[in-house]
């Protein structure tokens, strides 16, 4: 329908004295530049004063329109037409100053019918409608109700639409009463047709936007004889029919009483379906109203109205919207019951009940397969779940669930994975109805897990896995503390994920949500399942990555269990011979061994491990004999090894022994070392340094030199880390002599140099640290290439190594000394300001106010907003410590620098009081 812009009166102009004066005055005021509202109230507006510059034009005949309605109201040109239409307040009259006669006349000029597109002034139309609706609702023309309802429906203005909806409900109620009492005395036929068109107008909008009207109000309008009669049923819009059936289905009451009306409107819906004809066997999806009829069939079956369900089912089959190939694929165990509802008797009740169950299963399975064929995954899952709840389920019908799960897995979409997870959880339940009757095959579950892993969807994957564990354990808490033997007593029905999917789920537990309990239970269950069923859960290529995730999650006992279980399998050399896994496992268990040793000997200082290496260093040797090393020959490394190495008894704790066993297996697999790969030899050397086997480490490095291979930066850093742990001065000389050879860049040895500096400061070797940090020394280029991240690593390593109060104070002094040393060199290379939180907090904990203030000035002042909550808390603690330890005037100056003078005032004011 075409749109009429800015409708005006089409009748000849007539004089409207009181309103025209106001309108002309408002227009004149706007033209004269008076941008203020006029004093206009009700139907008797005041004239402008005689001294006004606006002439008196009360005798001029004007034609009001919606374009000037805002002028009448405010005296200003309407400037809000470009603003979006918002939900108005239907209890406030927006145009209370305008005569209702004017507004009624404006509404009467609105075009009849719906709005194809919004007019340029929808707010004016809505304001006029609401103003009349508040003051004189009975005077609103019927076509104005329809026009405003169409605008409200397009803009989803529910409160405005309700005004027209309430009027439509009153009309429907009036005609229902009159026609039921005395149909022959009904109103004039033309008025009835106008009212019927209006009701159909409102019903159509309600069908297109379900949020506008509730199901009860919709059915109240739909049942009106002006809408639902023999002459109008055949011409009903299919959208209206679908909405009506959906409204019937949403009612909590039984649907059987509404069946006669549904029978009348059903042909109107089916006749609008395009006949699929020969395309019924293709994957072409039908009209969306078919889903409403599927729900109707399900509702009839749920209420045991089998005759009506069969009637609708047959109608769809005759219309070719239930394809023949789907019907042929459905298993038919018995004939459906008759049209009448069966009644159970003593001698034939069980047989009739079996027929009813078979009928439910056949019909619902057919509908599910239709949804699978058309790709309606959500609807297929909903129907299958209803089939599980209402129909007798047999193992033969379990193929339907398998087919649906396979189809969902083949979709490879996140939404299909969510639907598949919901179906699996609904199929495998712990209640008496389904327990032990449906067991999904392993390949179906593994396919689902693999799909989730490929799409990076841990949510559905974890939900299904936890649900299956809950069902099989008989416990609501599937994460209960239990040993591995509990799972070995009984073979589980459903398997855990395998290979890449198992690693993905474990990584989700370890890295993403950091839930060590779930990760531990998953690892235990996977190993127990493999031992009890002899089904490999992890193939050889996936074991190294899986063990790395276990070590990352600190699941040490599980790592040992898997290592002992898998290293003797066929292809075990791929596990024990993987350099990445061996390096991570050795460093992890050496760190665990050192932590337990430090716990037993809290008085001893723990060694600080350099950052950036593949393996961490092991126990600290007791002594060293200095020399001038060189890497230019094998003899030089031999001499250095003889000077550095001093045999000590190996610790006998289980973590150290396990790390040693891993390295021994790896070394044995790489024999002979003369032909081993370069990175394998470097791994052996790094792990040997971690375990304190300096003789093995230097011997391995000699293997690289004996083959005339030039050591790369990684090889040198491995050697530097081992030497720095033993003696920082020797490591510094080794680095200096290697730099003189010019075989590497400064950036390549920055990691080793940072580790030497960190270790030297931690061990109190200030001479070596000062020489390493000296800009004018040979290490000057390395100092210039030190990154802010490396400096932050050194600072945190120094602070973390302290244990006792005395050690904490010394660590703060060391960190501040280093920070000042580097800040003098290049203030721009300071670490992240967040490092300052740790440094200031450490100084405050040690009671060193001046050091804390120095850390704050160097690292945080002007770099973090003063209003930051954490920063404010830190400054408050620093201010209180300064007030306690500094003189009054000096403390006030520092508090002013911290922007916390109020704390100083509060403290000294309370003292003076």
Walkthrough of the structure:
This protein has 913 residues and is mainly alpha-helical. Among the domains are: 17-155, no CATH class; 865-913, no CATH class. The chain contains 43 helices and no strands. Helix 8 (215-222) packs across helix 10 (238-250), helix 15 (349-374) packs antiparallel against helix 16 and helix 30 packs parallel to helix 32 (713-726). The longest helix is centred in the middle third of the chain and has 26 residues, at 349-374. It is flat and about 110 Å long. The two termini are 84 Å apart.
Task: Give me the secondary-structure topology.
Blueprint: H1 17-32, H2 69-74, H3 100-108, H4 122-135, H5 142-155, H6 158-181, H7 189-208, H8 215-222, H9 230-233, H10 238-250, H11 259-270, H12 289-302, H13 306-318, H14 324-329, H15 349-374, H16 377-390, H17 398-411, H18 414-427, H19 442-454, H20 458-473, H21 484-488, H22 500-512, H23 516-533, H24 543-552, H25 556-566, H26 573-576, H27 579-600, H28 634-644, H29 654-669, H30 678-691, H31 694-706, H32 713-726, H33 728-740, H34 750-762, H35 766-773, H36 780-784, H37 788-800, H38 805-825, H39 833-845, H40 849-860, H41 869-885, H42 888-897, H43 901-912
